[in-house]
């Protein structure tokens, strides 16, 4: 039985703890949160011991899931790798690329598995699109369109700590773009707006609406469309267009039904409300992948370098906004 720990017992930490509990090959051996009451809540729900420090909770485990505040991620990764413990860390690694690079240097050559929580790679629909595209079902890939809209604007306190929409929200889409395209983006241009709540996003120095265009050396394009608020729910779609056709991973609903009557046609139930509902399968699959990597002694399919690459794209996009121009990725990297 593989022993895992969870650090950070907020909404996503609770989800990971529950998924570890569901995996027949793992045992949730311990939890830690800087707020002891949060750790105690997960402890009561799972039977895992609650610890008072990061070092204590990972002292006798095979792997740790880091779901704590972003500013702790790099420190925790370095400590865990130093202690020989495999790491699963939620995105982003850090909000500052220099800190990410220092962490990269500190863990280089360790051989310890480090997985980054880009769960959308594990979504069955998204993954099926990628596999079909890579297997040549639509010929040469020309364009990727990623639509990701949240159902509502987060609270001000969250926005103040998020690092900005591109590092917090779009970073998932930057990773998904790299996952879907046949080669790496080499340039990015960005357009950001304050349309959902201009007063609030202006106060926190953030944006709530984004459109970005990425281009690879071969000329392949990716358009990323973001909004912090979609009135109809959590809008998650991926389209890959090629020389011989198109592939789509669409929104999901609790059940499939279309209603036709005298006043409306083609009406369906609302799409799933938010990320825990929409990506439930992918969250379970990424934890299972992490466990398999520990057991096999292999490196995760989405690792530290992928986390760094997504942050570089975010920094390039912010530079594009600042200087109102197309930015080459090499300017950042």
Characterization of this structure:
The N and C termini lie far apart (41 Å). The protein is built from 13 helices and 13 strands. The strands form 2 sheets. It has a 7-stranded mixed beta sheet. Strands 3-2-1-4-5-6 form a 6-stranded parallel beta sheet, sandwiched between helices. The model has no long low-confidence stretch (mean pLDDT 97). The protein has helices at residues 11-22, 36-46, 54-57, 73-82, 97-107, 124-134, 156-161, 165-168, 170-180, 198-203, 275-278, 280-296, 304-323; strands at 2-7, 26-32, 49-50, 63-66, 86-89, 114-116, 141-149, 185-193, 209-216, 221-227, 235-242, 245-249, 327-328. By secondary structure, it is of the alpha/beta class. 38% of the residues lie in helices and 22% in strands. Strand 11 and strand 12 form a beta hairpin. Helix 1 (11-22) packs across helix 12 (280-296), helix 4 packs parallel to helix 5 and helix 5 (97-107) packs antiparallel against helix 13 (304-323).
What's the layout of helices and strands?
Elements: E1 2-7, H1 11-22, E2 26-32, H2 36-46, E3 49-50, H3 54-57, E4 63-66, H4 73-82, E5 86-89, H5 97-107, E6 114-116, H6 124-134, E7 141-149, H7 156-161, H8 165-168, H9 170-180, E8 185-193, H10 198-203, E9 209-216, E10 221-227, E11 235-242, E12 245-249, H11 275-278, H12 280-296, H13 304-323, E13 327-328
Parallel strand pairs: 1-2, 1-4, 2-3, 4-5, 5-6, 7-10
Antiparallel strand pairs: 7-11, 8-9, 8-13, 9-10, 11-12
Helix pairs in contact: 1-12, 4-5, 5-13, 9-13
Radius of gyration: 20 Å
Number of helices: 13
Instruction: State the share of residues found in helices, binned by percent.
Output: 25-40%
Biggest sheet, spatial arrangement of strands: 12-11-7-10-9-8-13
| Uncertain residue ranges | none
Report mean pLDDT, rounded to a whole number: 97
State the total count of DSSP E strands. Answer: 13
Q: What structural class do the secondary elements suggest?
A: alpha/beta
Shape: globular
**Largest sheet data:** 7 strands, mixed
- Write the H/E string, N to C: EHEHEHEHEHEHEHHHEHEEEEHHHE
Q: For the record, give the distance between the C-alpha atoms at the N and C termini, rounded to a whole number.
A: 41 Å
**How large is the share of residues in beta strands?**
15-25%
């Amino acid at each position: 039985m593989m022993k895992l720990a969870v650090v950070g017992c907020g909404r996503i930490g609770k989800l990971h703890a529950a998924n570890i509990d569901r995996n027949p090959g793992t045992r949730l051996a311990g939890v830690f949160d800087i707020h002891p009451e949060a750790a105690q809540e997960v402890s009561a729900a799972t039977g895992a011991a609650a610890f008072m420090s990061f070092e204590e909770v990972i002292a006798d485990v095979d792997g740790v899931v880091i779901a704590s505040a972003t500013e702790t991620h790099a420190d925790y990764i370095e400590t865990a790798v130093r202690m020989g413990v495999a790491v699963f860390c939620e995105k982003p690694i850090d909000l500052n690329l220099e800190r990410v690079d220092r962490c990269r240097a500190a863990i280089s050559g360790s051989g310890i598995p480090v997985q980054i929580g880009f769960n959308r790679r594990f979504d069955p629909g998204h993954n099926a699109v990628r596999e079909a595209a890579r297997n040549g079902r639509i010929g040469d890939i020309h364009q990727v369109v990623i639509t990701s809209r949240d159902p509502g604007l987060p609270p001000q306190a969250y926005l103040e700590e998020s690092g900005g929409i591109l590092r917090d929200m779009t970073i998932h889409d930057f990773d998904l773009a790299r996952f879907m395209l046949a080669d790496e983006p080499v340039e990015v241009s960005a357009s950001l707006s304050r349309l959902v709540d201009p007063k609030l996003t202006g106060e926190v120095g953030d944006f709530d609406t984004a459109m970005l265009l990425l281009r690879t050396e071969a000329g392949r394009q990716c358009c990323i469309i973001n909004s912090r608020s979609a009135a109809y729910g959590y809008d998650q779609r991926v389209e890959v267009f090629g020389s011989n056709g198109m592939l789509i991973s669409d929104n999901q609903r609790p059940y499939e039904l279309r209603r036709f009557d005298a006043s409306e046609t083609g009406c369906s139930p609302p799409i799933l409300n938010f990320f825990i509902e929409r990506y439930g399968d992918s969250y379970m699959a990424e934890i299972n992948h992490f466990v398999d990597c520990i057991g096999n002694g292999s490196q995760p399919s989405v690792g530290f370098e992928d986390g760094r690459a997504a942050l570089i794209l975010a920094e390039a996009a912010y530079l594009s906004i600042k200087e109102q121009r197309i930015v080459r990725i090499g300017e950042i990297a």
